[in-house]
Q: What sequence folds into this?
């Protein structure tokens, strides 16, 4: 089309109208706000998941799992509550993943199963490689629409524009997300640190964040994990320097454990091994899987002929070997745990071993890690752990990094995420300290509905977001009753009394079975007297004319409770069973 | 007698003979060596106890308890193994206690009960005060011969001379022991640190230790708890300075928790409260007990009229109150835990509260402490904990202090004690680093018999020294079978099947009862099908002519296991019960 004056005028009018209508539409009405709903990761470390909802469209950021607390007897994993997402499944435009740690991707297969629809998943290559492993294992590859992205990409899904921004973290290919909607713009950092000497050379894209910040970011959501730590988290490459120091002049066989997903750590171990002409053995299932995925996708550069099989270990001298293995958290069933307990199939710890634990215990694992170190020391090996060498750095930003991000972003509103209650509060104080208005900082909880636009932000309600417990094949079928029973059984065991009844009279028994209560062989007298107590209770019932079974059972339970407690100070679960013939 | 020349000559001869015979007797023959047998506290933190045996005489140093590991389901406490002491009870000359912490005195009442003889106990005044509380509670006051000593005292019991030497520690009135026998001299540090500004003004008696060292100490036994920490543990008084800083200008109600036994810490809180004109409430059973004992015995100086009852709290402004309370380890049932969970009888946490946690989590308690902090933050209070303020110092010597003691003592032989395996090894390396010959350092374990005299030291054997588990009234009656059952029950619960039999045929049932396995109300189908599976198994037995009960039970167990595992991936404990009528 040739642009004429008339056309120009029309265009100008059009533009003006557009401009006006834009201005008229701003700020959007209440119903047009962006809803941000953290489903998991607030008030806890783990199971990170956030819903972003605008009008009738919804995207999800991350879908992680969490490992159970000590009090969750027998529970395998804990998931976020998918109820709100299931209710709004028709709105779902896609699942955007920041990185490949379990607390960000571990819930995906459960969500996909639950939704029963094809879910578009956006993730960087390495993250997608790890998700793929899970999809294959759960036979769900056909249930998702895999979209591999890279840092710098922008994806438009309905009203949502999502930009992937490079960050550093303890796993390769991590990104933050810039989410743009007509109502508001959001920067979600995901898990991050700032590493000026990252192993892959890709420093967190601070320029882009600064640019977006200067254009105006309405809501910042940032990782609170390390907000209690002063200073700046050291670079991953600082650990490599320690490895070189430890390898130099070492004649021992070297066994190193770290988090399998920390591919850059593994790279540095392999590089150090190559420098000192050592062969490398990869040991432990998750380490083997991770090395396979990472080298297939090009995230791990392995020199030719450096890897050997653990079965060929004997062909090499101690000084020619490095074993990279699992078990950095002291897990008794992981490879290092089995070595420490003398139960590893191919490797016995000996005096000429140097064991390097290149990790920190995750809170709650401190005692397990100590236990493994003690066992390894008992076996005569030299153990190098964090207290005595700089062999681990965190993947999360400390205070100075968090302040830098606040300063680059200068958000209107701030929502600290990924952290326990005290961390969120400290993160809020940190933001206030660098100039964010206290009234614009929000401490939310799982399920909070945070409504935000260019001008305002508030918490307007709450959706269901309780932890969902997984035990075996059961997802969410275990509640407090079952857990309380397990707790009671774990403390004082079980005392079963069986009586066969006929026409209201006991005709056989009482038979007694106990487990986890006393050592039965040495407690004959106790058991015999308990049997007499039951007989007395039955007789009393008969004499009093008590015939309904629940009353009889109560009598038995109470008389046994009194007797057993008086003799042992223990309170086993007492189960009276009456059988009618 | 008038001393004549003849007499003089005789005396001289006598002296010479004595002298000769002394020399002839040195070194003593093998049977005259001093046996040092650590019964607890090696390869672990807790239940400290050491036997010293010379010829037919024996003394014991400390008799502590330990708190159970996570895997010790339902166990209340763990004791040292008293078998060797019971076997040699006739040799026992006395029990010598270094200080009043539970891991040094908590086993005494159990030992006294077990021995059934009157045991002489030597302890300083405050330590004895704490022992007395326990003796009264267990009605054992008549079973012991209490001997109160003070630092500087020497006690001769048979061939043993024991000297009490002032040390600093996180409880008042702590001592090290210098033990002199004809065979060898030993310095046992007990738990200690070096505090140049102790609250009671009594600095560890380094002069005396140096003097004994210069006279020659054969064996040094020293506390390894903090050997992994570089530097010098700060003075207890440094914490007081922090309290003043926190109190100054504070308008909030102040709630402080610390270890009840740390009387000097409590003193500093009271002093700070007095300075800022605040009243003090003592809350929590163990805190109330400890303050009572400590002030009765003069170890705590409480200004007049400063203590008030918690029920009178409402008569004071927030800025006029300090509450000293229990629960520094995050124990949910202790006072602070109940406050955090909104279950305290007299105190509700509010925004205008400053809660100070003047303690570090004991290893294993990290998560419980975090949980309490998070709850308190959730309730809006300001929580001050170690990460953000210098409000706790350890009671144990760090590396520089340990080196100083090595240097003052210059022992012939060294036995690191009170520590997990890795700590003992690090302590050995530390001693070697300051000049002790590696061959003269011994890493022993609980039960090791260390034989020492002026010239030699070696580990010659082992006595029984397994941990003894206490559950309720039962001491040592819980073994691996019971613990394994509790563990299994805690993981997947329990599934009971009861069938009444008559002449080899099932005539009633199968009845099914499950606990801690599935939520029964939502699992009717599962339970019904399980019942069918049992019926099938019974039928199969009948058809195959299987009549013996153990085979029938096995069939039931196996078919149920298969079915339940296939449906749930869980492995409950399956208990088939057959009743004959």
A:
């Amino acid at each position: 089309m040739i642009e004429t004056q008339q056309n120009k005028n029309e265009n100008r009018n059009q533009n003006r109208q557009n401009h006006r209508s834009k201005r008229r539409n701003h700020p959007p009405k209440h119903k047009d706000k962006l809803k941000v709903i953290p489903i998991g990761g607030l008030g806890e470390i783990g199971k990170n998941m956030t819903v972003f909802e605008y009008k009738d469209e919804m995207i999800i950021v991350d879908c992680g799992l969490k490992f159970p607390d000590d009090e969750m007897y027998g529970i395998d994993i804990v998931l976020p509550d998918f109820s709100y997402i299931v209710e709004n499944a028709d709105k779902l435009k896609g699942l955007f993943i920041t990185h490949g740690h379990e607390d960000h991707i571990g819930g995906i297969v459960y969500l996909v199963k639950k939704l029963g629809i094809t879910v578009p998943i956006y993730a960087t290559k390495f993250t997608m490689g790890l998700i793929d492993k899970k999809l294959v294992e759960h036979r769900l590859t056909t249930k998702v629409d895999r979209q591999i992205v890279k840092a710098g990409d922008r994806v438009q899904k309905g009203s949502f524009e999502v930009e992937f921004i490079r960050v550093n973290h303890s796993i390769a290919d991590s990104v933050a997300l810039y989410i743009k909607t007509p109502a508001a713009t959001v920067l979600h950092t995901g898990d991050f640190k700032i590493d000026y000497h990252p192993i892959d050379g890709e420093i967190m894209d601070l320029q882009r964040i600064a640019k977006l910040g200067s254009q105006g970011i309405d809501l910042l959501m940032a990782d609170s994990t390390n907000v209690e730590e002063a200073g700046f988290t050291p670079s991953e490459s600082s650990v490599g320097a320690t490895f070189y120091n430890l390898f130099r002049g070492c004649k021992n066989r070297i066994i190193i454990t770290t988090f399998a997903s920390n591919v850059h750590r593994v790279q540095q171990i392999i590089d150090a091994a190559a420098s000192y002409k050592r062969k490398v053995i990869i040991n432990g299932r998750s380490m083997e899987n991770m090395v396979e995925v990472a080298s297939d996708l090009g995230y791990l550069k392995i020199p030719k002929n450096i890897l050997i099989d653990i079965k060929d270990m004997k062909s090499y001298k101690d000084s020619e070997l490095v074993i990279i293995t699992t078990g950095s958290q002291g897990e008794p069933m992981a490879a290092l745990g089995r070595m420490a307990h003398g139960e590893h199939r191919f490797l016995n710890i000996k005096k000429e071993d140097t064991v390097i634990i290149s990790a920190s215990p995750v809170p709650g694992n401190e005692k397990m890690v100590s236990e493994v170190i003690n066992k390894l020391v008992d076996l005569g090996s030299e153990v190098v752990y964090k207290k005595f060498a700089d062999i681990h750095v965190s993947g999360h930003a400390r205070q100075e990094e968090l302040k830098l991000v606040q300063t680059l972003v200068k958000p209107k509103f701030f929502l600290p995420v990924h952290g326990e209650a005290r961390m969120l509060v400290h993160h809020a104080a940190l933001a206030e300290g660098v100039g964010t208005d206290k009234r614009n900082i929000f401490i939310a909880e799982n399920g909070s509905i945070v409504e935000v636009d260019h001008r305002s932000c508030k918490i307007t309600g709450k959706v269901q977001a309780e932890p969902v417990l997984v035990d075996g094949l059961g997802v969410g079928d275990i509640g407090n009753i079952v857990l309380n029973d397990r707790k009671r059984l774990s403390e004082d065991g079980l005392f079963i009394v069986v009586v066969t009844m006929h026409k209201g009279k006991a005709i056989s028994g009482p038979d007694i079975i106990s487990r986890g209560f006393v050592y039965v062989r040495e407690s004959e007298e106790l058991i015999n007297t308990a049997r007499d107590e039951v007989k007395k209770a039955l007789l009393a019932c008969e004499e009093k004319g008590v015939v309904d079974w629940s009353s009889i059972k109560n009598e038995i339970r109470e008389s046994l409770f009194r007797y057993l407690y008086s003799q042992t100070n223990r309170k086993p679960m007492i189960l009276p069973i009456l059988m009618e013939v």
Notes: DSSP finds 16 helices and 25 strands in chain A. Confidence is low (pLDDT under 50) at residues 1-28 of chain A.
